[in-house]
Write a structure and sequence with these properties.
It is built from 7 helices and 12 strands. The chain is of the alpha+beta class. It has one domain. Strands 1, 2, 3, 4, 5, 8, 9, 10, 11 and 12 form a 10-stranded antiparallel sheet that branches. Strands 6-7 form a two-stranded antiparallel ribbon. α3 runs antiparallel to α7 and α6 packs antiparallel against α7. 30% of the residues are buried. This is CU044_5270 family protein.
Length: 350
């Protein structure tokens, strides 16, 4: 794969088509070992001096070009997403959207005397143990979107992985603080007319589960114009594309927008400099985006089902490039959201 000239970031149709064909050839070779392109974090031993460290970090982390392989993945996903999931449902059908949210909780005995206080550690280097806690939520969207959307919060949070020699103590604290915090305030099963969450007292705003629904008609279908539309709303005069990547992927994982808008969003994401292919495994392609400075790196991993043209997993990790953790591996993300969208014939009744 040839790199694009740093001073000319436009991707031609020929480059996209060539990259797409190369990607599809790789996907078809399922027996071939996968090459992992994930960068290793910069440790203390790699830093010669402050100025050198900053220069190295900036050269690695500042996105400079559009990756034609990533553009090919996203362009291909945009092509197939139009018809992959039939969002034009029959009257008795629902879109069932299951979201599994995995959160890393870092435990440090020195943070306090109460169980919940010991999970206030925000830096992996200080953590004496780590827990991955999964929360599962299921949303049922009716064919008539003005009807009742069913939001199922009945699944209890589950500890699915532990790290560190004191993980048993952390797990015991988690169980204790969960029991203390379960007030029963939020109903396990809710019917939300039109998909709107009741506003807080004194607030007239109705918060939609698909928050961009009121402006779908305003969102451009041209990919560059759509990217500019998001950048203009970032609130950042320097147009921080990390915010844009977060916003685009948040909308895409919901799987609720019209199919042609979903395709435009995928093509807009392809225009963000710095997104690259990090892994291809069967029909799953993982893209990576990094931002940050010499001290902290934020890594976003976006996994697409190339047959459905939809995001199935979104993971984010913030890492300290100077101080690592002996307890929690760098490969463990801070958060991972996995989304499964299917068409079903019924929904639970609140």
């Amino acid at each position: 794969m040839r790199d694009i000239d740093l001073h000319n970031t436009a991707v031609t149709d020929a480059q996209i088509n060539n990259a797409r064909q190369e990607l599809l050839r790789e996907i078809s070779k399922e027996s071939r070992p996968i090459r992992h392109g994930r960068r290793r974090w910069l440790g203390v031993s790699a830093l010669v001096g402050g100025v050198a460290a900053t220069a190295v970090a900036i050269s690695v982390l500042t996105p400079t070009q559009i990756d034609p392989a990533a553009a090919a993945v996203l362009e291909n996903a945009a092509d197939v997403t139009i018809t992959a999931i039939d969002t034009t449902l029959t009257p008795d059908q629902y879109l069932r959207i299951q979201t599994d949210g995995d959160q890393l909780w870092q435990w440090d005995e020195g943070m306090g005397d109460e169980a919940w206080e010991r999970f206030n550690s925000s830096d992996r280097a200080d953590a004496e143990a780590g827990l991955i806690v999964r929360e599962t939520r299921v949303l049922y969207v009716p064919a008539d979107r003005s009807g009742d959307w069913i939001w199922d919060w009945s699944a209890d949070p589950q500890v699915i992985a532990t790290y560190g020699t004191r993980a048993d103590e952390a797990a015991a604290d988690w169980t204790e603080q969960e029991a203390a915090s379960d007030s029963g305030y939020w109903p396990d099963l809710q019917a939300l007319p039109g998909g709107e969450i009741p506003a807080a007292e004194g607030d007239d705003t109705q918060y939609l589960l698909d928050s961009y629904r009121p402006v779908y008609d305003q969102m451009p279908r041209d990919p560059q114009a759509l990217l500019d539309w998001f950048r203009a709303r970032s609130g950042d005069p320097n147009v921080n594309d990390q915010w844009v990547v977060d916003a685009l992927t948040d909308v895409l994982t919901a799987n609720l927008m019209p199919a042609e808008l979903r395709a435009a969003l995928l093509r807009a994401l392809a225009l963000v400099p710095g997104i690259r292919v990090s892994d291809v495994n069967g029909t799953a392609a993982t893209l990576e985006y990094q931002s940050g400075d010499w001290l902290y790196t934020r890594t976003t991993e976006i996994t697409l089902d190339t047959e459905l043209g939809m995001i199935t997993s979104l993971a984010q990790t913030t890492s300290n490039n100077v101080i690592g953790s002996d307890t929690i591996p760098t490969t463990v993300p801070d958060t991972r959201t996995s989304v499964t969208t299917t068409v079903v014939g019924d929904a639970p009744t609140p």
